[in-house]
Amino acid sequence: MTDEREDNGNEEDSNSDDEYEAEPDYGQEPTEEEIQRFIDAAEAQPDYDQELAEIEIQRQNDLYEAQQAYHQELAEIEIQRQIDLAEAQPDYNQELAEIEIQRQNDLYEAQQAYHQELAEIEIQKQLDLYDSRIYYLETSAFTKIQNKFAEFEKWEKEQEEPEKADLSRWKSEHPEQANQLFMCINENLKTLRGPVPSIPVRAKIQSVNERMPSIITEIIDETHNHFEEPDWNVINNTIESSELKSAYHLSKQYLDNLRFYARHDLIHALLVTKYSLELVSLLYDNQEAKSLFSNQDDLRVIKLIVTFASLWHDSGNSISRENHQDKSVMLARPHISNRLTELDLEDREAILIEILKVITFHTSESGHCENLESAVVRLADGIDCTILRCGESGEQAPLDLFVRGQISHIYGKAGIDEVEISNDPGQNRINVKFSLDPIMNPDLDDFVGPSIIELQELQTGKLQSLEHGPDYARFFQIDISRTEH
Fold it and tell me: Which domain holds residue 115?
């Protein structure tokens, strides 16, 4: 028993020794294998770190290249977007321009329709007004005329060889009757009667109208003489343009409806142009007057301004007589603007503004003239008051003219045969001399007659309006003489 326990005890001790030996002995020195293992690990570490560094560098390179490619792609996309935008922009602008043009066209057409409607309303209003006036006059005018003739014939029978002094006395005692008698014409006689020798006034006007084509040619030739060929070609194209001719054709129709019997047509515009150029040529030699032109250093430009303004000044009558100068500006602006581009000029826009200003101020209703060009055209408009202004309306029956209140204007102009514009060096002024028919104006010494009345309207209307502001009237004077038959 004892031996078995000892054996068992020894066996247990042996097992205890084996377990102890299996635990690591940290107090012992490392073996060569362990040292070699640590050396190999240390030697392998740099290679490992180098590999990691190379991997990181490669990763960074790959990332940089990917970013480069990404940014390049973004740049190409942006460039393409800008190119597409640039290519699309003209189409967009063209579309906007077309839309704007269409809007302007629609607006212009609407304005045209509006003005046309206003014009038709105004025409109808004027027609109604004149029809009512004519109805009243037709019921009483002929009786009044016959009474005037009867009164004079009674007075004439009471006189024995009446002398001129008696006639002047009767005129002073009966001014209203004398004026009516002088103007009133019996439809059946078709001639002036009473103290004035009989004269077929209608035949005189008709004779002038028959010669009008050759007169127009002379006017255009005189206008041509003021310009060199390049300028004249542009002006002549304006005269022959369908825009100008259409405007004055419509003006004539409109004013005929309003019973305006004096010419406001293209012939009137050509005459105003002729007179304006004559006045400018003379005024430019006057140093004081020259300084009042808007373009005082360039006679060519001054002549172009008054020519375009004169040609278009009454075109607005095609729309409305009221404020027709503003309508003329509206019609003239696009045409004149295009014509100026055909001329060798430095500041076309400034010249266009001056032309439109002259058109605006050709009538005294617009106020005092702002420059001498406006004063010239305004006066030239009034100077056109000779028999050339009567037109076909002057061939109408005298009684018809009388009842419409136009006989004084027509017969006043018919008695003015011509006008001559010349320089008066002694007075430092321009002399505008009218030659009056002595048969139609027998009492010129007493400053009496239908043509005298017409010239008084020129004096008080056009010329006196030039006294306001810079007083352009001081450069002009009105004179009369008898036509030698």
Answer: 99-198
